[in-house]
Amino acid sequence: MKKKVLSLLLTAVMAAALLAGCGSSETESADSSGNSSASSSEASGKTNWVSQDKMGAAPAKDADFSKFKIGEIESYVIDDGGWCQATHEGLVGAMKELGISEDNLITLEEIDDTDQAATQAAAEQLIDAGCNVIIGCSTGYSTFLPEIAAKNPDAYFAQWGAKQDNIIGYMIRSYEGMFLAGYACGLMSDTSLFGFSASCNEFSVRTAINAYALGCKHAKSDAKVKVACADSWYDIDKETQCAQSLIDAGVKYMGGEYSSPAIPETCEKNGAYVVGYHMDRSAEAPDAVLVSFCWNFEPIFKSILIGVENGSISKNDMYYWGGDCSALTDFASFVPSDVVDKVKAAKADIASGKLVVYAGELKDNKGNVLVPKGEVMDDATIQLQDFFVDNVDCAW
Amino acid sequence: MSADLITSVLSVAIIYAVTVLYATIGEIFVQRAGLMNLGLEGLMLMGAVTGYLVAVNQQNLPLAIVAVILVGIGMGLVFAFTTITLKADQTVTGMAILTFGTGLSGFIGKSVCGVSANLMFEPIPIPGLYRIPILGPSLFNQSILAYVMYFIIPLSMIYIYKTRAGMILRSLGENPAALDSAGYNVFALRYVYVVFGSVMGVMSGACITLSYTNFWSDGMTSGKGWIAVALVVFSRWNPLIAVLGALLFGAISVIGIDIQMYIHVIPSQVFSALPYVATFIALIFTTGNFRKKRSSEPGSLCIPYDREER
């Protein structure tokens, strides 16, 4: 009996230890998909925000990229169907546009962004190989790369996430694309109930949820978004159940932040519809994916490479671009043309500033006013996203 | 709790259980024979990638299954030769299989990552049975690989406990010296069961990419191989108890998602931890010495048999 009690006590202690890391935190740490907080952008006080007007700028006619050697540090594999693949494809696309051979790209995969030794070894390996531009796909690397960047002033390091010393920062206004995707769902749905299948409680996921919800609301003022949380970046069973639970709750249109095809496949089996995430997911479930939100890093990487070539770039530069970077794929054929036209018009309105995603009056789901009427949310708050907008029903 | 909710949780639990049970039952046979293969995760990944590669390139599911079986036989022979003939440490060899399977699957799977096979074992509703409320859609609207498992479970029980061959299997794991003295070829028998276990292990992986979902991604088994190893111990080397354990684990893994959609007071992370807490509790009660009950663990588990030491 005594042994049984002791064993149960031990189990309880271990379970409590398991839960010790639960709950959201004000200061977020890096995660496996490379997203992270963005609250320390003014670490050096010299951040230079690169204007989105520079998007699409062409290199000089006599630009010479032949001596460029580019290194890429990925936290997972480059064909993960998600974040790392989007980063890699953006880089390859930018190189191709500038006439840089893919032979000049060195990719190091599965470099754990919590492993200092591995990260530094990877960066040093790329430096030794002659790389003059090094891209870190996960913000977790920013803990370790500044030191190496300082020791190698001739090389340019670019890092997803917040601005760090000696490193060019870049982020994408993903909320623009997700807002438009939510708007499309809102236009297509007969009901005001929508869903969102979320992975982990992290700022980019909350951004996607909020933007999607605001988009649905833009089409239907009484739109409600129910969120199912997998609490995992990659779990086929949980992602399947998230989609199934939402469908069982009456949801027919849902957004999602996911890497596996489990959610689109489940939607297709049940006659529901979903927004693809990270990249084009139409091939996974052609009858369910109405459009996909894609991270399009190509314009940013192209701008960085041009800047390095002509010397105009600064290590204080920070990119926070939307527009074509926050891209939507073509709509599925079953999406009516009037829906497509309205979404395109909304996209143009966002680009012109006529439509602002986080414009007041905006409340959170606890009734607090986030943005008063007539004002707009500042970038720092947008990047942190430590709230859910008023039409989101979420357990986090 | 609505009927739809029960059906959907049960459906996912059954799919989860089937993908794990092939490896679990295979490992039960291996451990009953006196060996332990901890490389199930590597086997599952190799099965998943092999089946998917053939499905994508040849668009032929029977051929994919044949390829998976051949890979299982090959990997099983490697493990068997290393541990039975060379008498290498079984834990280390299992880890080597794990590492090899994980690395090789990631390497050869690169060409089909992100590629849709558009070919899988679709669910086949059993006429009549499919319409039974709640249980019907869950149990009788599954793929053929699940239906095969429905037969494997009772057949395994009958084989192990009701046949002469099963008695020999149990003796193999309890006292191989006695079996050797009776004139049975202990080494050959162990080879057979190790290869069988390996084939079942790769079939578990094939279930994931050819039946459960239709894509390949590096490391997509997400630790199911380890769950299978734990289930072998949890089940006391009994296939029927393994089924209950797999269903329980599968249901607990996903039911939290439904509950937290409606009850926000409990953090979602609590539900994520539930399967592992349940595993701790289950293992304590099944392996702890609380009652004076003879352990079901094979007496010669992990002990290489050497005729000269008999």
Task: Describe the protein in words.
The complex is a heterodimer of chains A (396) and B (310). Chain A is an alpha/beta fold. Chain A has a seven-stranded parallel β-sheet with strand order 1-12-6-5-4-2-3, with helices on both faces. The two termini of chain A are 39 Å apart. In chain A, helix 6 (203-219) links the parallel strand 7 and strand 8. Chain A has two domains: 48-172 and 297-321, 3-Layer(aba) Sandwich (Rossmann fold); 174-287 and 326-393, Response regulator (Rossmann fold), CATH 3.40.50.2300. In chain A, helix 5 runs parallel beside helix 6 (203-219), helix 5 packs antiparallel against helix 10 (337-352) and helix 7 (236-248) packs parallel to helix 8 (262-269). Chain A has eleven helices and 16 strands. Chain B contains twelve helices and two strands; from the N terminus they run H-H-H-H-E-H-E-H-H-H-H-H-H-H. Chain B has helices at residues 3-32, 40-58, 61-85, 90-108, 135-139, 144-162, 164-174, 176-181, 186-212, 224-234, 239-262, 268-287; strands at 124-125, 141-142. Chain B has a two-stranded antiparallel sheet with strand order 1-2. Helices cover 70% and strands 1% of the residues of chain B. Chain B has one domain (3-225). In chain B, helix 2 runs antiparallel to helix 3, helix 2 packs parallel to helix 4 and helix 10 crosses helix 11 (239-262). Classes of the chains: A alpha/beta (396), B mainly alpha (310). Chains A and B meet through helix 1, strand 8 and helix 7 of A and helix 1, helix 11 and helix 12 of B.
